[in-house]
Amino acid sequence: MVRIILFSFLRFLNDGTYVQIAVTGKSYCPSAFKAFNIVADNITKISISEGISMFFTVLGVLGIGVGVSVAAYFVCVEI
Known about the structure:
It is built from 3 helices and no strands.
């Protein structure tokens, strides 16, 4: 479990690093340090936005599932 979390964090940090390289034009290590500082400074905002997006993802999946089930029920009742 720790390995998965570490891998996900490093992939997220790597994406941020490449964004910093594109924006600032600096090399990899300074960009990685800047990306880490940005993540560390905004960890609460990142956590809240991840939680909200997960909530709406689950809500959407449930809504689609319920909607399709109700539609299938009414189609089957008509037959």
